[in-house]
Structures are given as structure tokens and as C-alpha cells.
Design goal:
It is built from 13 helices and 43 strands. The protein is of the alpha+beta class. It folds into 2 domains: 259 residues, Vaccinia Virus protein VP39 (Rossmann fold), CATH 3.40.50.150; 337 residues, Kelch-type beta propeller (Neuraminidase, 6 Propeller).
Length: 677
């Protein structure tokens, strides 16, 4: 019986993912992320992808390549071994391995839809370099069934729909694969496009068919958190639904899936664990230097939603994992002490000016919030924003005051800091960037006028002594501290063009607008960026951040005032908080609140962490978003504390979700903290 029209359309959509994927792989290789001289042979129109996509395909290529080469090393003493790539598309795996000389006594068979392998066979035969590597015998041996599109001494292209296991058996027999030989089965984002009963049947068939084998898959997990929902929506819009996510949503479910279908052992890690556990630091530094990059949140979230799995049986089963996770501590799911409700608190349309990230906000009065900069939506386009958004409370709602906003005065920077000074009524903006190669050195001063007949906000540039000015930076922190009765703005950490995580600090006198030196004792904290800083007891509380090695930190530090200056102190938390960054923080009644952010060493999404500063006791609270109609992404957001109401106003947040599109939180959200405070 022929396929239903809907299934044919879905098959075509899945085949279309191959064309997009190979362009991304080619972009990644062309920039030097991964050595592959053959990918370009399968791309008719090349395109340079964004750095985030290049990194995503790099880690995919590294993980798969390590598994394949590990199999070839493990079976090097066998007279024959086999690589069976399911849904191979236009992948260049065979040509890369053949060119490297590692396919001795090995054969490679690639399976995909008949139309895909027909196109791939045509590209191979039309290329002198590729056809010579395949070594097609003369006259070419072509089995009569028509399933084999190309057949060489150690390479076969097989056109079969994986849903038809009887036909697959027949095709593999014609291709000469021997079930008794050690075999690696490989499926890169393939099984998830199949209905679960069919993909599970492939897993069971493979375990029954081959005596000694390992099965490697690369797929997605974690469908229900905000990033996962955006990911699912993207593939549904492409008519390429990710079926496996419904029944096998996490690593443990995927592992059980193989163990319950005939495989003896199964190891699985997400791509964060693989990246920091299996790729050495020098290689990670090399990748960092290939092109400017500043999308750490989206990179870590992408990696937490993909995994590499290796199941094995027979002589290929072994007790040790092929993945080494030294230096990457897994914290597991934290104990949740309660729930914090999230409520939409604005009637603004979804096109509100607060659909942005990488911005700053400040509570000017009890009724007014000022937000500056960031990247977001303007007139239907995503861009660096040059307006200043003023949010005003009217009764119980917060709405944008379009009449008193300031347009075309902001310079478009993002990842800056903005410190509100009640006397005089102004905010000092320090640092930020236009691009990762263009940091901002000018300090901006925003003045506020209460009078309704005057423009509400004015922006001016502050002149400071160039010889005293710190290195231009972004993703740093700034907060007010007190020394000998005088207030200063304390600037710490951040990134610069040449330094991935600064460990220095500076003091700015806000009234005299000059940089001053104040003695600071104690051990210098590890360099970091995307951390938080809060004023407390005359000093500054620093929490979290992303360290120089690219891993989140869980330290809480107190810059404590002394008679001669300040001293660094460590605040021990119990239990230890999970390392995080890109969060916001506030102090209320002796408690430090860490809101949202990104953590990569636990499977859940950060909510609100409450730390008692007198005892160090920490508690985790989950944010309930049941009243929202859209995913709430709490990273690169801003927030202001409304202490009288024991609530927190969250503004903006989101980011570019890999190749799945940009998500921007639609409206301001109020977090009700009454129960936890």
C-alpha cells in the first residue's frame, strides 16, 4: 500500500532537514571548527552561519567522530568491521575516514530515502576526488533490486525507508553486510523523526540482527522547559515533529529505551558534559578564538537539549564509558522548597518595547521603571535597541509610557550596567558593547525629571580621566558601596575583547565622576562575567557568573567594608547552590535572592534561590508559569524589587534559540514573593 499524502509530505520535510544541515556543517568546517575537506562537495550553495550555529554543529561533529573512531580503534584487530549509518543524508563521514586511512578492513554502508541517496550518488560520481576514494569496480556491481544506488569496494549507498525493516534486511544483504561482524550503527537526528513504535522497532531489530554491535545516536531531549518548547515549535512548523520527545524526554528514558530492547549497556551524556568532559581546555580555547562569540546562554541551553548515546552488546559491550567527565560536576535536580507564582502584569500589546534582552532596568520611583538598551524587537525587526523604555504603574498594571520615553538618544549598547542614584535623580551607565569587537568606553548619565511638562529622561555622555579609566568591558557588574561615609559605584569583572573573564575591580565616585583607588584585601576572586552584584551592609554581594574556563560558578562573595577599605569574604551556602549565571539578584531583609539565569549541571530550570545571609542556608523555589501563554525565559532579563509588596517585576529576557528562532518574553511578569519572604 502506498504512503498516505500526509506521510509523504512529512518525509519530504525530513529530507529537507538534510539540505539545511549540510550547509551548516559546511559553514562550520570552512571556518576551521572541524577538519573536513569533503563537506563542500555536497553543497551547491554555501552560506556562512551564525557563530552559535557553527558551534552547535562543531560539538555534534566532534561527539559523533569520537564515537566512530573509538569503535574503529576498539575493533582494529578484527578482519572485518562495519559502519552502518542510518539516515546518513549528505554526510561526508566515509570520505573523511577513508582519507585519514582509518578504514582498514572496514566497510561503510549509508542508508537514506531513495531520493536522497540518488542525489548523493550523482554528486559522488560527478566528482573525480570522491569517486576515486570510493573505488567503484569496473564494471560496477549493481544488485538487481534497485535498492543500491552506489556500490564500491568498501562503500555502499542504500535507498531504503527505515520504516520498512524487511526491505532494509534485504538491502543490507545485497550490500554484503555480515550480521556476525562487529558493527557500528549511527543515527544523527534520525530516529526522532519516526513514530516511536517504528523507531523502537529499529532499535530492537538492530539488537536482534547483529551479534556484536554498538548503536550511537545524537538527538534532542528536555522538551518541556522554555527552550525545549521553542525547539518543539520550530520542528512542528517544519512538519518534522520530534516524536521521541513525548515518550523519551530525558537521558534516563533514552537509556532505558535501549536497555529494554536488547542492548546490554548504554552510556549517555548531554553535550555540555561532553564538551567540558571530553574536549580538552586547549581545544576549547582554539574554538573560542575562531570568531567573535557572545551567546553563552543559548550555547549552553542548546547543548543541554542534545545528547550523544552509545549502546552496545556482544563483544563490544564494556563496563567503562567512552566519555570522561572530570571537572564537570553534575548536581542533579535540587530539592524544591515551594513555588513562586508568575503573573502577567501589563495590558500592553505583545509588541511592547520591553521585548528585549541584554538590557538594564532601574526602579526610579515606586511607580516608574526605567529600562535601557539591549537587543530586541523594533518595528518588526530584531536589532540593537536605541530607545529608553519607561514603564509606569497605573492602578495594578504596568504600562509603557510612550509619551515620555526617549528615542534616538541611546547609543544602542547592550550588556551594560545602570546604577540608579536617588540623589541626584540620575542613573550612571557603565560599559556594554555594540558587538563583541566593539565595547563601549563612554559613561552615560540619565537624568530624570518629575515635571509633566518636561521630557522625562535625558541622556548625556560623562567625561572621565582616560588615564584612570578601566578597560572597556561588558557583562560586568556594578553596585553602590560606601567607604568612609561616601558612596561609590563598584565595578567588577566582565569581558573584554581579549579577556574572556576579567578579575579586576574599580571604584567610581559618582558625584565627582572620577575613578579612585580604595584598598581591597583578601584572595582575589576568580575572573567572571554575567554574574550579579547587590549592595548590602555598605559592601557588595557577588554571586555566580561564568568563569574563565567557560563553566558557571556557584560562589557567593561579600566585599566587606573595613576602616581602611574593603576585604573579600566567602559566604558558605548550605546546601551548595547550583552554579549559575545570567541571573538577576536582590537583597531583602537579610536574604539574597537569585532570580532565573542558566545552569548546565542540573536538569531543571533555575527559579528563585533564597540565601539567608546570616546562616548561609539556601532554598530553591520553582517559578510557576501556568498563567502564562508563552515560555518564560529567565536569562538576560532584568528585574526590580518592589519591597513594600514583596514582589519582583521581571522585564524582558530571552535570546536566540540556536537555529530555532529568537524568543523574547512578551510582557512584564510579576513574581509574588510573599510566601518565601
Amino acid at each position: 500500500m502506498g504512503k498516505l499524502k500526509g506521510q509523504v509530505a512529512r518525509d519530504c520535510a525530513v529530507q529537507g532537514t538534510n539540505d539545511s544541515s549540510i550547509v551548516s556543517k559546511c559553514s562550520m568546517a570552512a571556518l576551521g571548527y572541524f577538519q573536513d575537506d569533503f563537506l563542500s562537495s555536497f553543497v551547491t550553495k554555501k552560506s556562512r552561519r551564525a557563530p552559535l550555529i557553527n558551534r552547535g554543529y562543531y560539538i555534534r561533529a566532534r561527539a559523533v567522530d569520537q564515537c566512530v573512531r573509538d569503535f574503529l580503534l576498539q575493533t582494529q584487530d578484527y578482519n572485518r568491521r562495519q559502519v552502518l549509518s542510518l539516515g546518513a543524508g549528505f554526510d561526508s563521514l566515509y570520505f573523511r575516514l577513508k582519507s585519514d586511512g582509518v578504514l582498514r578492513n572496514a566497510v561503510v554502508c549509508e542508508v537514506d530515502f531513495p531520493e536522497v541517496v540518488r542525489r548523493k550518488a550523482a554528486l559522488i560520481t560527478s566528482s573525480k576526488e570522491l569517486s576515486e576514494l570510493v573505488e567503484i569496480p569496473e564494471p560496477a556491481r549493481r544488485p538487481p533490486s534497485g535498492l543500491v544506488a552506489l556500490h564500491g569496494d568498501d562503500y555502499t549507498l542504500l535507498g531504503v525507508d527505515l520504516s520498512d525493516l524487511t526491505l532494509l534486511d534485504h538491502g543490507l544483504n545485497e550490500a554484503g553486510l555480515d550480521p556476525a561482524c562487529p558493527t557500528l550503527l549511527l543515527a544523527e537526528v534520525v530516529l526522532t523523526y519516526m513514530e516511536n513504535t517504528r523507531s523502537s522497532a529499529v532499535i530492537r531489530w538492530a539488537a536482534d540482527h547483529f551479534q556484536s554491535a554498538c548503536f550511537v545516536i545524537y538527538e534532542q531531549i528536555q522538551p518541556e522547559d522554555p527552550f525545549g518548547k521553542v525547539m518543539q515549535k520550530h520542528f512542528c512548523q517544519l512538519n518534522s515533529r520530534l516524536h521521541a520527545l513525548t515518550q523519551f524526554p530525558d537521558r534516563e528514558a533514552q537509556r532505558r529505551r535501549f536497555l529494554e530492547r536488547g542492548w546490554e549497556e548504554c552510556f549517555i551524556v548531554d553535550m555540555n558534559e561532553f564538551y567540558y568532559g571530553s574536549i580538552n581546555e586547549s581545544e576549547r580555547r582554539r574554538v573560542d578564538e575562531l570568531e567573535p562569540f557572545d551567546e553563552f546562554e543559548e550555547w549552553h541551553l542548546k547543548c543541554s537539549h542534545y545528547f550523544i548515546l552509545r549502546a552496545s552488546k556482544g563483544s563490544l559491550a564494556r563496563t567503562e564509558s567512552v566519555y570522561h567527565s572530570a571537572g564537570f560536576a553534575v548536581y542533579g535536580t535540587p530539592e524544591i522548597s515551594g513555588t513562586v507564582p508568575a503573573i502577567v502584569c501589563s495590558t500592553d500589546s505583545p509588541s511592547t518595547g520591553l521585548r528585549r534582552f541584554g538590557h538594564c532596568s532601574a526602579l526610579v520611583t515606586k511607580e516608574v521603571v526605567l529600562s535601557t538598551g539591549g537587543f530586541g524587537e523594533k518595528c518588526g525587526h530584531h536589532q540593537r535597541l536605541r530607545d529608553i523604555n519607561i514603564l509606569v504603574r497605573r492602578e495594578q498594571e504596568w504600562v509603557t509610557d510612550c509619551q515620555r520615553g526617549s528615542d534616538a538618544q541611546w547609543d544602542g549598547r547592550l550588556f551594560h550596567t545602570m546604577t540608579w542614584l536617588p540623589d541626584p535623580k540620575c542613573a550612571l551607565v557603565v560599559g556594554g558593547r555594540m558587538s563583541p569587537m566593539h565595547p563601549c568606553s563612554e559613561i552615560l548619565c540619565l537624568t530624570w525629571e518629575d515635571s509633566p511638562d518636561k521630557e522625562a529622561c535625558q541622556v548625556g555622555t560623562v567625561a572621565t580621566c582616560p588615564e584612570d579609566a578601566p578597560l572597556p568591558r561588558w557583562r560586568h557588574s556594578a553596585t553602590e558601596v560606601v567607604f568612609r561615609g561616601d558612596s561609590y559605584i563598584f565595578i567588577h569583572g566582565g569581558r573584554s575583547v581579549l579577556n574572556p573573564a576579567l578579575d579586576d575591580w574599580h571604584f567610581l565616585h559618582p558625584k565627582e565622576l572620577r575613578w579612585v583607588k580604595i584598598p581591597v584585601e583578601g584572595q582575589i576572586p576568580e575572573g567572571r562575567h554575567s554574574h550579579s552584584a547587590c549592595s548590602w551592609d555598605g559592601g557588595a554581594l557577588l554571586a555566580g557568573g561564568l568563569g574563565a574556563k567557560g563553566l558557571p560558578l556557584n560562589s557567593v562573595l561579600f566585599l566587606k567594608p573595613t576602616e581602611s577599605g574593603f576585604i573579600w569574604q566567602i559566604i558558605e551556602t548550605n546546601p551548595l547552590i547550583i552554579p549559575r549565571y545570567s541571573h538577576t539578584a536582590h537583597v531583602h531583609d537579610g536574604r539574597l535572592l537569585l532570580v532565573g539565569g542558566v545552569w548546565i549541571q542540573a536538569s531543571s530550570v533555575p527559579g528563585v534561590t533564597v540565601i539567608d545571609l546570616s546562616t548561609g542556608h539556601s532554598s530553591e523555589y520553582e517559578i510557576s508559569t501556568t498563567s502564562l501563554e508563552w515560555p518564560l525565559m529567565l536569562h538576560n532579563h532584568s528585574s526590580v524589587l518592589l519591597p513594600d509588596e514583596k514582589s519582583l517585576l521581571v522585564l524582558g529576557g530571552g535570546g536566540n534559540c540556536f537555529s530555532f528562532g529568537t524568543h523574547l518574553n512578551r510582557q512584564p511578569v510579576l513574581l509574588d514573593l510573599v510566601e518565601i519572604l
